[in-house]
Amino acid sequence: MVNLIRKDIIALKWYWLFVLGYGAVFGLIARSPHSPLIIVMLPAIMLTIFVSNIELRNKSMLFIGSLPVKRSQIVRAKYASTFLYLTIGIAMALLMQLISRSFPDEVFTLNGFVLAIGTAVALLYSSVYYPLHYLLGPRNSSIISVIMIFLSSALAASLNKSIDLSRIALPSKLQVLIGLPLAGLVLLYVSYRVSLAILSRRDIEG
């Protein structure tokens, strides 16, 4: 499984610079109240799509399917990559927050609530994307993935705007901070089981 994740990391190549550049744009140049949330969650979404497009272009999944690799390892590697991409987004947001402290007039609010929403939305995206990817095939799922980016961004912005932690009592606040990522993890596990069931009954498509 580790080698499959390493394959995706190597395949991304210059896409890493694109993600870093986008983080710098939203974190330093085009900063807005939603910038911390965008930086946290979008790397997981963007890199997932980038890898799928690279695999489609290079036909790499056909090659992997010919190797002595279990279907469960292929699926598990994809879902494990979500946590790697999410960690990169969180690290970028923390870096932007440190840089923003050098500019007292600039506000970059990264808190537990932003991290909880960003984590939950990123996990939700992967939970929906991968079953569709394996069910519809990489060619058909690419269009859906673009639509899901806008829906995920709209959902995250709506949650960030509608829930005010300052008006929530401490127990409820902790429930929000813990409950959102936990719900995302539960959905991700259910999604993993669904994706594994789908791929075990289908041929691997390039």
From TrEMBL:
It comes from the Bacteria. It comes from Cohnella fermenti. Signal peptide: none annotated. The chain crosses the membrane at residues 12-30, 36-56, 77-96, 108-130, 142-159, 174-192. Keywords: Membrane, Transmembrane, Transmembrane helix. The keyword Nucleotide-binding does not apply. This is ABC-2 transporter permease.
